C-alpha cells in the first residue's frame, strides 16, 4: 500500500482563460470519500501573496468537481465554481488594506491551484501538495491591440478588438484614486468594443502643470475615439465607476460634443455642482469632509458626504435631460458613496421628466462600492489615497464577500448585454 | 444614424490546448443569412493553411458551429472542430506539405473569420474576425534540453511537485526532434522525453545501438520527479518498432505499458536500428507509385513480414500494449502486422495484454486530434536520399475522427496503466 495518496490528477479547464470566464477544477484518482483541500495561490504585481481554499470530500468514484460539489469550509462554502478566485484574500501576516489590481494587462494573472491532503486551513506553503497546476487568467484576448494615446494631451490607452472593424467605442473611467487603470477596457475590447481607458485625475498634463483637467479633456477623448478609422463614430458609450460616474453623467447630460449611444454608471452619484469643473466638483466633496464617519476599525466612511440628496437642482446633474439609455449599478452596502440613494433620486427625476424608459437600475443587497469585473477578490476596505488631499487612509468600501461576488458576476453579465443591445 | 446590427463572432476558449474543443458562435446576423466561417493559419514554414464551412443563420440570427450544419466548404455536416482538422494548404501552395509545430513554447495562431455569402466569400473583407491560440504546452509545463549519456532529446515535466509517471516518446522514419506530442503528454501529467535518434535522411549512418534507447528510457526513469516503476513507451511508425523491440528484447528496461501507433513488429532480433534499413533495401523493388507518382511502401512491409526471422517474438511481451492503426495505411501493412502480433500473443497466452484500435479509411499519420490530415507529404528516403512524396493514406473525415477517438483512448489507456488506481490492490 502506498505511503500516501499518490497519482492524484488535478486539471483546470481552460488552463488559459479570460478573467470573466469560468473554469472547471477537477480532482481525480483519490480514494472514495477522501478529504482534501483545493487551494489557490496568487502572487500579485506588488509581491503580496493571496490565497483561497475549499474543503471537499471525494465521491464514490474518487473525484471532486469544484463546479458541482459543495465546499464544506474554507474561504468559501457550498457549490462555488469560481470560489477559488473571488474568495482570494491576503495570506496571514500580510499588510492590512490591500487591494488586488492588475496594472500590466499584457501578461496574465497566474494562479497556482493545488490539492492538499485533509481539510487544512493554514501552513500550505510549508507542505508539499498532492498535485498542482498553473492557471493563466487574461485581461486581454488574443489579437486585442493595446495602443497608448497621448494626442491632444491625453493620458490614455486604447484597446482595439481583433478584426477589421469598425467597432463600437467606449470611454472607460475609474474613480477618485486616479492612475491609468487598463484592465476593464482591455476586457471590454476582448468582447468586441474599442475601449479607451482614460486617466483624468493624474494624467501627465496635471502632473506637469499641477492643474486638473477641464471638460475639454473628456471631449478630446471622445473625439479621439470618434475619429479613429476602426471605430463606429455613432456608437460610442461611456462607462464610469465612482467619481467616473460623476463625469459620465455630466457628459451625457450637458456636453455639446459628447453624444453617447448609452452610458453605464457604477457605484456613483449625480450629486455635484452642475456648473463645476472637475476641480470644483472634488472641492464640493472635500467641503463636506466633516461628515466623514469612522468604523470600529477606524475605516473612513464617506457615504454621508453627499447625503441627504439635495433638492437644489444646481447640485445634481439633470438626468431628465438624458437622451440615451442609462444603466446604473449600485451596491446597497456601499459605504463610500450613497449610490443607492442617488439611483433612487435619479429614477424619480427621470420619471418626472418622462425619460425613465431609458433607465435600468441594478441594485444589489450587501454589495459594496467596488463592483469590479467578475471573480475579482472583494475588498471590503483598503488603503486609499485621494488625489486632491494626498492623504492615505483606510476607506471602507462595504459589501459582504459572497453577495458582493455574486453581484460582480451578475452586473458584468448584464452590463455586457446592455452594451451589446445598444452598441451592436 | 445607421441601424445595421454589427455581427458578433466569438470563440470559446480563445486560448486552448491543441486537443481541446472550442465553440465558434456568430450572433447578431439577420435571420436566414448565408455566411462562411473561415480559419487561417500562417505556419512556421511560412505556408498558409485554411478551412471553411458554409452556414445559414437561424431565426435568431445565430450560427453555432458546434450545433449547426455546414453546407459545404472543406467540411460538411455538424463538425464542431472542422475548422481545424479540415485545414489544407491554400491554393497555390507548394506540394506535399505537412503541418508540424517545431517551437512548442509558443502557440499556433489562427484567425477565425466570418464572411458574408457562400460563393465568392473571399471577394470582400470579413464581417468580423478573432484570433485564437492553440497550445501544445499547458501553463507551468517545463521544457528541458537533454544532452546526457549520449542521448539527445527534450524532456517535458508537468507542473506540480510530482512524482509523475513517465514516457519515452519516439516518432518515425522522418527523423529529427519533434517535441509537440511530448509537450502535450506533459500537459496531461506525464514526464515525457521526446527522443531524437537520427537526423532526417540519416538513418543509414546513424550510430544507433539498442543501448541508445535503453539509456533514454533510464533517463526518464531516473529523473527525481518520475515514479521509476511507472514509465511507458510511446511510438509512431519506426518509433513503434523500437517500442516493441524494447518491450520484448530489452534486458535492461521494463516499460509499464506501450502505445504503438502505425507500427509493426519487424525488427530482426540482434540487429541495430540501421539494420532495419537493410530489410527495406532488400525489398525496395516492392515500392509502388500511384497515378500521382506518390510512393506506396506497404508491399515492402508485406514482403518483410513473410520472413519469420525478421519479426519480434511478441509472445515474450510482459506489459500491456495498445496498437493504433488505420485500414487505409499505404505506408506499411500495420493492420496485417497487428493481426500477426495478436496471433503471437494469443499463442503465448498474453492476449489479455493486447488492445487493438483499428480505424476505417484512416492512414499512417495518426496525430493528436484536430491536426489536419496528411494523405501524402514530402519525405526524404533514407536509403536513396531521394525527395519523394510519400502516400500515407486515409480520407480526411474518417482519419480525423480516428485521431480524435484514438487520442482519447490513448489517454485513458495511459491513465489506467501509469496512474495509481485507488483500489487497495494497486500493486500487482
From TrEMBL, chain A:
Residues 20-151 form the Acyl-CoA thioester hydrolase/bile acid-CoA amino acid N-acetyltransferase domain. Pfam families: BAAT_C, Bile_Hydr_Trans. The active site is at residues 242, 334, 369. It comes from the Eukaryota. One of its GO terms (biological process) is fatty acid metabolic process. Residues 213-423 form the BAAT/Acyl-CoA thioester hydrolase C-terminal domain. One of its GO terms (molecular function) is fatty acyl-CoA hydrolase activity. InterPro entries: AB_hydrolase_fold, Acyl-CoA_thioEstase_long-chain, BAAT_C, Thio_Ohase/aa_AcTrfase, Thio_Ohase/BAAT_N. Gene3D superfamilies: Acyl-CoA thioester hydrolase/BAAT N-terminal domain, alpha/beta hydrolase. Belongs to the C/M/P thioester hydrolase family. This is Peroxisomal succinyl-coenzyme A thioesterase isoform X1. It comes from Lates calcarifer (Barramundi).
From TrEMBL, chain B:
Residues 209-419 form the BAAT/Acyl-CoA thioester hydrolase C-terminal domain. One of its GO terms (molecular function) is fatty acyl-CoA hydrolase activity. The lineage of its organism: Eukaryota, Metazoa, Chordata, Craniata, Vertebrata. The active site is at residues 237, 329, 364. This is Peroxisomal succinyl-coenzyme A thioesterase isoform X2. GO terms for biological process: acyl-CoA metabolic process; fatty acid metabolic process. Coiled coil: none annotated. Gene3D superfamilies: Acyl-CoA thioester hydrolase/BAAT N-terminal domain, alpha/beta hydrolase. It comes from the Eukaryota. Belongs to the C/M/P thioester hydrolase family.
Amino acid at each position: 500500500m502506498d505511503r500516501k495518496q499518490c497519482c492524484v490528477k488535478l486539471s483546470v479547464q481552460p488552463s488559459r482563460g479570460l478573467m470573466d470566464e469560468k473554469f472547471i477544477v477537477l480532482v481525480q484518482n483519490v480514494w472514495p470519500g477522501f478529504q482534501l483541500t483545493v487551494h489557490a495561490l496568487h502572487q500579485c504585481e506588488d509581491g503580496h501573496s493571496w490565497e483561497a481554499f475549499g474543503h471537499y470530500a471525494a465521491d464514490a468514484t474518487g473525484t471532486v468537481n469544484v463546479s458541482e460539489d459543495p465546499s464544506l469550509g474554507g474561504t468559501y462554502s457550498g457549490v462555488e465554481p469560481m470560489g477559488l478566485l473571488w474568495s482570494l484574500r491576503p495570506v496571514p501576516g500580510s499588510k492590512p488594506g490591500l487591494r488586488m489590481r492588475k496594472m500590466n494587462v499584457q501578461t496574465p494573472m497566474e494562479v497556482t491551484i493545488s490539492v492538499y491532503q485533509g481539510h487544512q486551513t493554514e501552513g500550505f506553503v510549508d507542505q508539499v501538495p498532492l498535485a498542482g497546476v498553473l492557471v493563466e487568467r487574461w485581461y486581454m484576448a488574443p489579437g486585442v491591440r493595446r495602443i497608448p494615446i497621448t494626442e491632444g494631451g491625453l493620458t490614455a490607452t486604447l484597446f482595439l478588438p481583433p478584426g477589421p472593424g469598425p467597432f463600437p467605442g467606449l470611454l472607460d473611467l475609474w474613480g477618485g484614486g486616479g492612475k491609468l487603470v487598463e484592465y476593464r477596457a482591455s476586457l471590454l475590447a476582448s468582447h468586441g468594443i474599442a475601449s479607451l481607458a482614460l486617466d483624468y485625475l493624474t494624467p501627465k498634463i496635471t502632473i506637469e502643470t499641477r492643474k486638473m483637467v477641464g471638460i475639454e479633456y473628456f471631449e478630446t477623448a471622445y473625439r479621439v475615439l470618434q475619429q479613429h478609422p476602426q471605430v463606429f463614430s455613432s456608437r460610442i458609450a461611456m462607462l464610469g465607476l465612482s467619481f467616473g460616474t460623476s463625469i459620465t453623467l455630466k457628459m451625457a447630460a450637458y456636453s455639446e460634443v459628447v453624444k453617447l449611444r448609452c452610458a453605464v454608471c457604477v457605484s456613483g452619484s449625480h450629486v455635484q455642482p452642475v456648473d463645476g469643473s472637475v476641480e470644483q466638483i472634488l472641492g464640493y466633496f472635500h467641503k463636506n469632509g466633516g461628515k466623514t464617519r469612522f468604523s470600529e476599525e477606524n475605516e473612513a466612511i464617506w457615504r454621508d458626504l453627499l447625503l441627504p440628496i439635495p433638492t437644489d437642482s444646481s447640485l445634481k446633474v439633470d438626468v431628465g435631460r438624458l437622451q440615451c439609455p442609462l444603466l446604473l449599478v449600485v451596491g446597497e452596502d456601499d459605504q463610500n458613496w450613497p449610490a443607492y440613494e442617488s439611483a433612487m433620486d435619479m429614477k424619480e427625476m427621470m420619471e418626472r421628466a418622462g425619460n425613465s424608459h431609458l433607465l435600468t437600475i441594478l441594485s444589489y443587497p450587501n454589495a459594496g462600492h467596488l463592483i469590479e469585473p467578475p471573480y475579482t477578490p472583494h475588498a471590503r476596505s483598503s488603503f486609499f489615497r485621494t488625489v486632491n488631499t494626498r492623504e492615505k487612509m483606510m476607506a471602507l468600501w462595504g459589501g459582504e464577500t459572497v453577495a458582493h461576488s455574486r453581484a460582480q458576476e451578475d452586473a458584468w453579465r448584464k452590463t455586457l448585454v446592455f452594451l451589446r443591445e445598444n452598441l451592436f | 444614424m445607421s441601424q445595421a446590427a454589427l455581427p458578433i463572432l466569438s470563440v470559446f476558449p480563445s486560448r486552448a490546448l491543441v486537443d481541446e474543443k472550442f465553440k465558434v458562435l456568430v450572433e447578431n446576423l439577420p435571420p436566414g443569412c448565408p455566411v462562411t466561417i473561415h480559419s487561417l493559419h500562417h505556419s512556421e514554414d511560412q505556408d498558409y493553411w485554411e478551412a471553411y464551412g458554409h452556414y445559414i443563420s437561424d431565426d435568431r440570427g445565430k450560427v453555432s458551429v458546434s450545433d449547426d450544419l455546414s453546407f459545404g466548404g472543406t467540411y460538411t455536416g455538424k463538425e464542431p472542430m472542422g475548422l481545424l482538422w479540415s485545414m489544407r494548404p491554400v491554393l497555390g501552395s507548394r506540394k506535399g506539405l505537412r503541418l508540424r509545430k517545431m517551437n512548442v513554447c509558443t502557440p499556433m495562431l489562427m484567425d477565425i473569420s466570418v464572411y458574408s455569402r457562400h460563393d465568392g466569400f473571399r471577394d470582400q473583407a470579413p464581417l468580423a474576425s478573432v484570433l485564437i491560440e492553440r497550445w501544445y504546452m499547458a501553463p507551468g509545463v517545463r521544457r528541458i534540453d537533454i544532452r546526457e549519456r549520449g542521448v539527445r532529446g527534450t524532456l517535458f515535466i508537468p507542473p506540480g511537485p510530482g512524482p509523475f509517471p513517465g514516457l519515452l516518446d519516439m516518432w518515425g522514419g522522418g527523423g529529427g526532434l519533434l517535441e509537440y506530442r511530448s509537450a502535450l503528454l506533459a500537459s496531461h501529467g506525464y514526464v515525457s522525453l521526446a527522443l531524437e535518434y537520427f537526423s532526417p535522411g540519416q538513418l543509414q549512418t546513424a550510430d544507433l545501438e539498442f543501448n541508445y534507447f535503453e539509456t533514454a528510457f533510464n533517463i526518464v526513469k531516473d529523473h527525481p520527479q518520475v515514479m521509476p516503476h511507472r514509465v511507458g513507451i510511446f511510438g509512431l511508425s519506426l518509433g513503434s518498432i523500437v517500442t516493441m523491440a524494447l518491450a520484448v528484447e530489452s534486458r535492461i528496461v521494463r516499460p509499464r505499458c506501450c502505445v504503438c501507433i502505425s507500427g509493426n513488429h519487424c525488427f530482426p532480433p540482434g540487429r541495430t536500428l540501421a539494420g532495419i534499413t537493410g530489410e527495406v533495401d532488400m525489398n525496395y523493388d516492392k515500392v509502388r507509385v500511384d497515378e500521382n507518382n506518390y510512393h506506396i511502401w506497404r508491399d515492402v512491409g508485406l514482403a518483410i513480414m513473410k520472413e519469420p526471422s525478421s519479426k519480434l517474438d511478441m509472445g515474450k511481451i510482459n506489459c500491456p500494449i495498445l496498437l493504433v492503426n488505420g485500414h487505409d495505411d499505404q505506408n506499411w501493412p500495420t493492420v496485417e502486422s497487428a493481426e500477426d502480433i495478436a496471433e503471437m500473443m494469443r499463442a503465448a497466452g498474453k492476449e489479455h495484454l493486447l488492445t487493438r484500435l483499428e480505424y476505417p479509411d484512416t492512414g499512417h499519420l495518426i496525430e493528436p486530434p484536430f491536426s489536419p490530415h496528411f494523405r501524402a507529404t514530402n519525405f526524404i528516403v533514407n536509403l536513396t536520399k531521394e525527395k519523394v512524396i510519400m502516400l500515407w493514406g486515409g480520407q480526411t473525415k474518417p482519419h480525423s475522427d480516428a485521431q480524435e477517438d484514438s487520442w482519447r483512448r490513448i489517454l485513458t489507456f495511459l491513465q489506467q496503466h501509469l496512474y495509481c488506481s485507488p483500489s487497495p490492490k494497486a500493486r500487482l
